[in-house]
Design goal:
Blueprint: H1 11-30, H2 36-47
Helix pairs in contact: 1-2
Length: 62
């Protein structure tokens, strides 16, 4: 398996990444170049799950 990285972004930052990838994809289309690698990353960014905020498993001391 390839090395993987986790990048934590807020909604604003994620919007910037998606917009930049989409602009790059459009440029590739205008230049009649392949877009598949950018498409894959763009879809990963769009479909990325939200980080779940869980409750602490520690019991409160009384």
């Amino acid at each position: 398996m390839e090395d993987e990285k986790v990048l934590v972004l807020d909604k604003y930052e994620l919007g910037i990444v998606i917009n930049a990838l989409n602009q790059f994809r459009n440029q590739l289309i205008r230049e009649k170049r392949i877009t598949e690698p950018v498409d894959e990353v763009l879809l990963k960014a769009i479909d990325a799950p939200d980080k779940k905020k869980g409750f602490s498993k520690k019991k409160e001391e009384r």
